[in-house]
Amino acid sequence: MPKPARLDKAQLIEMAASLTEEAPGKKPVNVQFNPETLKVTYANQVVTSDNKTAQTGSAGMQHVGKGTTKLAVQLWFDINHPTVGDAKPRDVRELTGRVSYFITPQPDPKKKDSFLVPGVKFHWGAFSFVGMMESLEETLELFSNDGRPLRSSLTFSLTQQEITAFKKGQGMRLPAVAGVSGRRPAGTVPLTSAPAGSSVQGLADSSAGAGLSWQDVASANGIENPRLLQPGQLLNLNASVRVEI
User: Fold this and answer.
1) Considering the chain, what percentage of its residues have pLDDT values greater than 70?
2) Which of 17-21, 61-65, 103-107, 112-116 is most confident?
3) What is the reported pLDDT for 145?
4) What's the confidence (pLDDT) of residue 48?
């Protein structure tokens, strides 16, 4: 019997004040859906010199400080997606609050009436980034009949006060992607073409995918961002998750 596919999940891990080691006794925050992209931005602090060159007359430039490196990430949360070991939340902010914790100042144990923003490591496979959460934006996207937010997207940026270029061999190792299979032989299962602007949730709710779980469809087709499908992308709405042995 085929074993279920193993999909590595990205984590947010609280760091000690030194940012060189993980904070003891703190539980990592696992994301529900891995991000579609990771954007890393490098910036130097540059000023112009007062001395002008004799040949061009233009001001020379010099670098000041260590510069900064920033990581931008977007994550999605949905209360209908199964969460291991936790009771099903009624409000998606019960899940996103675990991320917004990292931008909330916490009392400094060493200084009275002083606060510190927790350090955080974003870790996914072979990719790690340690810094401070500089900004966070939450968009509540789906509500219940009684006004409870059920689905949310979070966009945040982490920053570190230095430039750390990737070394050879470093970067992001993509997690194992689920294969697609059904009860019929390969090549005989009809595929559904995604219309422009469609999502996995919408296709699962349509007549073509009636009664299906959009989470299962997304996992079986190896889709990390269920909200964004390419026009014409082919999906097996009757898929089950498997990996080759």
Assistant:
1) 71
2) 103-107
3) 92
4) 65
Which structure tokens are listed for 136?
């966070």
What is the token pair recorded at 54? 């004799």
Domain boundaries 11-160, CATH class? mainly beta
**d(Cα 28, Cα 99) in Å, to the nearest integer?**
10
| Both tokens assigned to 196 | 């422009």
Q: Is 39 left (phi over 0), alpha (psi -120 to 50) or beta?
A: beta
- What residue spans in the chain does CATH classification 2.40.30 cover? 11-160
Strand partners, 42: 69
Q: Which residues contact 16 (CB under 8 A, 6 or more apart)?
A: 22, 23, 24, 119
pTM of the model: 0.60
| CA torsion through residues 20, 173, 193, 240, sign | negative
Q: Which residues sit opposite 22 in a β-bridge?
A: 15
Does 123 have pLDDT greater than 90?
yes
Distances (CA, A) of 25 to 2, 28, 104: 36, 10, 19
Question: Rounded to an integer, what distance in angstroms lies between the CA atom of residue 33 and that of residue 80?
Answer: 12
User: pLDDT tens for residues 125-148?
Assistant: 888 999 999 999 999 989 999 999
Residue whose C-alpha is closest to residue 88's, from 36, 137, 32: 32
In the structure encoding, which two tokens stand for residue 186, read together?
Answer: 């390969």
Confirm if 230 and 239 have CB atoms less than 8 A apart.
no
Q: Give 52 or 150, the one with higher predicted confidence.
A: 150
